[in-house]
Amino acid sequence: MSLIALVDGGGTTTRVRFLNQADQTVLSEVVTGPSNLGLGADSCWEQIRKAVDLAGLPMPSKCVAGMAGSEYVEERSKFLLKAPYETLLVSDRDSGLFGAHLGASGGCLTVGTGVAFAWLDDSGQLSRRGGFGFVLGDQGGGAWIGWRVLQELVRLGDRDGLNQSHRRLVDQLGIGESVNQWIQFANTAGPSEFASLAKVVVEYEEQVSLIQDVLNEGSQELGDTIQDFPKHLPLALVGGLSVVYAPRIQAKGYQVIDPKGDTLDGLAYIDQYLNELVIEHWKSYA
Predict the structure, then answer these.
(1) Would you state the pLDDT for residue 210?
(2) Paired residues of 118 in beta bridges
(3) 166 & 240 share domain
(4) Do 160 and 172 share a domain, yes or no?
(5) Alpha carbon of 99 to those of 63, 111, 263, 267, 271: distances in Å?
(6) What is the pLDDT of residues 230-285, one digit of tens each?
(7) Which domain holds residue 275?
(8) DSSP labels for the chain?
(9) At what angle do helices 263-273 and 92-101 cross, to 10 degrees?
(10) Beta bridge partners of 110
(11) Do 221 and 204 share a structural domain?
């Protein structure tokens, strides 16, 4: 039996769905750790191999991967060179787009650890925004939220301005109680670690005003990312923070809808219709 591995590689988790190549039936779906290409090609393949082991299935004959960090040209090339089997690579924003609308016109805003946006207009033209990574972009994403909230807590701590609600939040973050401990955390943290703070932060939105301020700021940043998108087209939000931001984006006048499918569905669609799509993609020589 020949298998296809559909790989959704993100900054926090990697989802892998295994299909029977003959009839496209789903055999298994596994979640492992982060595989953004910015973490390195070896790290990405390690997570994919881990998924194969966890699924208890034979080696796939083909991999179709939608990876965050596809803009890292060197690591993208290494990822394809190290491929142990035939591999098709696309950006995670494109796999999200085709999963959300299954080839129809519309936009898809991916808001997870990072932020990426893509849309198909009425003429079939594909456009993209964002996707620049944590250092230069990803404003509004999970890593950015964790970083901004910690930045504000440091500012308040430095001025003896922390109140009871702030201290309750700090207790839940699990990174220590003092400014020095927060500095130590920040100096060694990457996008995944900052994004882990966001998981806690969003639960305290109603209790801590600075969180509301940061999420409103994030909404403004996302608004800037999607400002060129035609408002008459449907817009789907995907990723771990989609529920947090959907009402805020809808309030800006966009037609926010539930996606028709997920990123893995998008990868299956791209694999099936690749020859008919004008989409940036890369292939291995395996």
Answers:
(1) 85
(2) 108, 128
(3) yes
(4) yes
(5) 17, 15, 5, 7, 12
(6) 999 999 998 889 999 999 999 999 999 999 999 999 999 999 998 888 888 999 86
(7) 3-99+262-283
(8) --EEEEEEE-SS-EEEEEEETTT--EEEEEEES---GGG-HHHHHHHHHHHHHHHT-PPPSEEEEEETTTT-HHHHHHHHHT-SSEEEEEEHHHHHHHHHHTTSSEEEEEESSSEEEEEE-TT--EEEEE--HHHH--TTSHHHHHHHHHHHHHHHHHTT---HHHHHHHHHHTS-SSHHHHHHHHHH--HHHHHHHHHHHGGGTTT-HHHHHHHHHHHHHHHHHTTTS-TTSEEEEESTTHHHHHHHHHTTT-EEE--SS-HHHHHHHHHHHGGG-----EE---
(9) 90
(10) 116, 238
(11) yes
266: closest CA among 34, 81, 102, 154? 102
Task: Specify the pLDDT at position 206.
Answer: 78
52, 162: one domain: no
106: its two tokens: 């519309």
90: nearest Cα among 72, 110, 66: 66
**15 lies in the same domain as 31:** yes
Cβ burial of 82 (10 Å; 0-12, 13-18, 19+) is middle
Q: pLDDT higher for 173 or 219?
A: 219
Q: Give percent of the chain above pLDDT 90.
A: 44
Q: Which two tokens stand for residue 216?
A: 């409103």
pLDDT on residue 282: 93
Overall residue count recorded for the chain in this entry: 286
Q: What is the pLDDT of residues 156-197, one digit of tens each?
A: 877 887 788 888 888 888 887 788 888 888 888 888 888 988
